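Researcher: Please predict.
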Amino acid sequence: MAALAERRIIPHEELKSRSERKAEVEGEARPEHMRLLEALLFAAAAPIDEKTMKGRLPEEVDLKASLRALQEEYAVRGVNLVRIGSKWTFRTANDLSWLLTKEAVVPRKLSRAAIETLAVIAYHQPVTRVEVEEIRGVIMSKGTFDVLMETGWIRPRGRRKTPGRPITYGTTEQFLAQFSLEALSDLPGLEELKGSGLLDGRLPPGFDVPAPSDDPALRDDEDPLEPGDLDLGLAPPPERIEE
């Protein structure tokens, strides 16, 4: 006759000690810099750049490798670690975003002119309004740029070093986030655009799609925005220095 299994009631104190030991083991197995990096990203109110993270971690830490490891660790969780431009942040997993939706947001439909203008700026930045008109072959209304500025997808970068010193424009991190891009280099190239039917298959010889750059620094042919541009709402606000 098989022996009956002994039924044992485990005291609460023993259960507690077991859980504490497990937590200690897990804590020992996970490098301290990974915990610091995780806490730093979690506490940040906005996406944080690698330079800031590097300055708050031990010098010997391989930040890029740590970010990749943390990204893989969170890939199967309810929140994911994502890169937006040159910055990193935690975001709700795409397949769970519906859980947090309380209101339906009605998207604002962009005009064809606004869509074409946005595409020109994305691929040709930094670019001036006149240059956008030359590429599109039409004169646009001021409202087209105003709409794109209101969406937060484009921003003034500087002033071109040419007569009249026109303002140059480029895309923003909000643009990358809106279209689920990690970097401008993720924009579709010539073959992808042709394959999707967005470009005519009968293109002129030598036609090519520019390779946009993520470098936020002003080019040699650009000057910084002037103090007076602040009054027009064009220049970015000064960065706050934390004490």
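Model: The longest strand covers residues 154-160.
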